[in-house]
């Protein structure tokens, strides 16, 4: 499949209407929007789809309770509307989740209760459910691991949960269904310009180390925390405007949060909201907010972040997890538009669109929940730049690839992410029964997912499979390392690679995966 795409790109004589650089939430959102309008669209990603921030979120589709307290009603309203459309358009990936805010003072009950009632009302007919006050006993019944000393009650409210990397893959497949062309491990190493205007990119295939030109009527820079690096190749006329913030998460055993209700702490020491949520049979706790000097492909948790999470878990669950109970530690980077002197935890997640004198369109900021609106606004701007035939966005009601749910209700939480593709995935085990085996006793994934990832989802490496096509690395880093050899062997078979390639890729994955193992006293 990848060879066919590269061959097509090499033979392309006609410029693309739209060329998107970046395969995360913002880039995929823009690409899907452009393709849905009928524009010939190409997306290139220098690593893998959702390799960066877009696979490292807190897995929530939400309006942003903290932005309500900051009175940023426009952002909250937009996000709540988008939350509703994400649930309608991808029910196999997005679902309602109940949250409880514990109150340890009587004053907190009306304060947060009123705020969450406003939050509910702002969602209008896209509300996921009513908020309500809970007694102390009901709060502990829903959150049985919560410390009860001093607890006065709680407030129940509803928000959305999703699997971010799987959502990105569904967007990539949707883009392909619409006739778009996407390819990973191809990077933009320069811009093609004529008369001071950007007319395409110089691209490099990172697998074969070949360079070729790709022409387009308009180029969109959707590189997340790397947008300024990309702009630097286009004279960097906007200066330094990005503040990069890091958020870290712990994954703990399900026993820390038994049941199906999430915990939300509305205000922590660094001014952020802290969540503990059930996710794929584990408990996900996060996040932090630490400014960092530069973006890296594999950010690691800082000692201060780990201490922050340990302290808050201890405070609300009555005991900090032992090192062996921290199954995975991972960090993501947020691209925030800089406002002088403002802490990163106070910066808004509104998106910003910039147009260079050369016509390069850059989108940055924003958050997963508003990815669709970001894509729509970006393509609207790109149409102006390139004078493309005007056409309305069609993504508001666009069903994503696999959107039909399993009507029998027999699919596991993990299997549901495949939606209508699940029967075809299961058929792989019928054709080759050995593929029905689990990847690892502590993981919910089967060998057939490896084969499916290579054949239909453009997985190219062990990391692609274990980090993003499945979520093994994010759920249990040690189990992922132990499962990696069989994944390397299967992937080599599917991609027609040599044993030497499998060994090299396995070594590369293990080095990355070590960064997800909890280590006391230093960066993970």
Present the secondary structure layout:
Blueprint: H1 2-10, E1 16-21, H2 25-36, E2 41-45, E3 60-61, H3 65-69, H4 73-89, E4 94-103, H5 108-122, E5 132-134, H6 136-142, E6 153-162, H7 164-177, E7 181-184, E8 186-194, E9 197-205, E10 210-221, H8 227-232, E11 242-253, E12 261-265, E13 274-279, E14 282-286, E15 290-291, H9 303-317, E16 328-337, E17 351-355, E18 361-365, H10 371-386, H11 422-431, H12 447-456, H13 462-469, H14 472-475, H15 477-495, H16 499-513
Parallel strand pairs: 1-2, 1-10, 2-7, 4-12, 10-18
Antiparallel strand pairs: 3-6, 4-6, 5-6, 8-9, 9-10, 11-14, 11-15, 11-16, 12-13, 13-14, 17-18
Helix pairs in contact: 2-7, 2-10, 11-12, 12-15, 15-16
Give a description of the structure.
With 524 residues, this protein is of the alpha+beta class. The chain has three domains: 2-53 and 166-241 and 347-386, FAD/NAD(P)-binding domain; 63-161 and 243-342, 2-Layer Sandwich (D-Amino Acid Oxidase, Chain A, domain 2); 415-516, Alpha-glycerophosphate oxidase, cap domain (Helicase, Ruva Protein, domain 3). The chain contains 16 helices and 18 strands. The protein has helices spanning 2-10, 25-36, 65-69, 73-89, 108-122, 136-142, 164-177, 227-232, 303-317, 371-386, 422-431, 447-456, 462-469, 472-475, 477-495, 499-513; strands at 16-21, 41-45, 60-61, 94-103, 132-134, 153-162, 181-184, 186-194, 197-205, 210-221, 242-253, 261-265, 274-279, 282-286, 290-291, 328-337, 351-355, 361-365. Strands 3, 4, 5, 6, 11, 12, 13, 14, 15 and 16 form a ten-stranded mixed sheet that branches. Strands 1, 2, 7, 8, 9, 10, 17 and 18 form an eight-stranded mixed sheet that branches. Strand 17 and strand 18 (361-365) form a beta hairpin. It is globular, with a radius of gyration of 23 Å.
């Amino acid at each position: 499949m990848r060879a066919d795409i590269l061959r097509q790109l090499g033979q392309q004589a006609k410029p693309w209407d739209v060329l998107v650089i970046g395969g995360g939430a913002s880039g995929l959102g823009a690409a899907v929007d452009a393709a849905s309008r009928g524009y010939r669209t190409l997306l290139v990603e220098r690593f893998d789809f959702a390799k960066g921030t877009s696979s490292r979120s807190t897995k929530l589709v939400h309006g942003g309770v903290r932005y309500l307290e900051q009175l940023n009603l426009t952002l909250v309203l937009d996000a709540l509307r988008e939350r509703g459309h994400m649930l309608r358009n991808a029910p196999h990936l997005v679902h309602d989740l109940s949250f409880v805010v514990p109150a340890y003072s009587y004053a907190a009950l009306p304060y947060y209760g009123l705020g969450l009632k406003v939050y509910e009302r702002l969602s209008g007919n896209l509300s996921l459910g009513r908020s309500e006050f809970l007694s102390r006993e009901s709060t502990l019944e829903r959150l049985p691991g919560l410390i009860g000393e001093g607890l006065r009650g709680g407030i129940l409210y509803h928000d959305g949960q999703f699997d971010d990397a799987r959502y990105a893959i569904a967007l990539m497949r949707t883009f392909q269904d619409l006739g778009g062309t996407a390819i990973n491990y191809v990077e933009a190493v320069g811009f093609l310009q004529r008369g001071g205007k950007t007319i395409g990119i110089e691209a490099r295939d990172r697998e074969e180390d070949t360079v070729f030109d790709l022409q387009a009527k308009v180029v969109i820079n959707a590189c997340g925390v790397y947008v300024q690096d990309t702009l630097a190749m286009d004279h960097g006329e906007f200066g330094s405007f990005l503040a990069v913030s890091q958020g870290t998460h712990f994954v703990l055993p399900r026993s820390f949060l038994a049941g199906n209700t999430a915990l939300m702490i509305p205000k922590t020491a660094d001014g952020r909201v802290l969540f503990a949520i059930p996710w794929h049979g584990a408990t996900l706790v996060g996040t932090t907010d630490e400014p960092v000097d530069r973006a890296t492909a594999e950010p690691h948790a800082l000692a201060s972040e780990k201490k922050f999470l340990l302290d808050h878990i201890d405070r609300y669950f009555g005991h900090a997890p032992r090192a062996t109970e921290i199954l995975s530690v991972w960090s993501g980077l947020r691209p925030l538009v800089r406002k002088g002197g403002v802490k990163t935890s106070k910066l808004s997640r509104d998106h910003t669109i910039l147009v260079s004198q050369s016509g390069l369109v850059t989108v940055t900021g924003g958050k997963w929940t508003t990815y669709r609106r970001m894509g729509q606004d970006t393509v609207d701007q790109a149409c102006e730049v390139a004078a493309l035939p005007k056409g309305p966005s069609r993504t508001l009601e666009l069903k994503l690839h696999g959107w039909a749910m399993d009507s029998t209700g027999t699919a596991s939480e993990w299997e549901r992410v495949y939606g209508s593709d699940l029967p075809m995935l299961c058929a792989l085990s019928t054709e080759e029964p050995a593929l029905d085996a689990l990847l690892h006793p502590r993981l919910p994934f089967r060998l057939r997912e490896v084969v499916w990832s290579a054949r239909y989802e453009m997985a190219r490496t062990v990391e692609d499979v274990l980090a993003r096509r499945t979520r093994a690395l994010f759920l249990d880093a040690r189990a992922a390392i132990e499962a990696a050899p069989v994944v390397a062997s299967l992937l080599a078979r599917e991609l027609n690679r040599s044993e030497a390639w499998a060994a090299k890729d396995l070594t590369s994955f293990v080095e990355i995966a070590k960064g997800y193992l909890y280590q006391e006293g230093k960066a993970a």
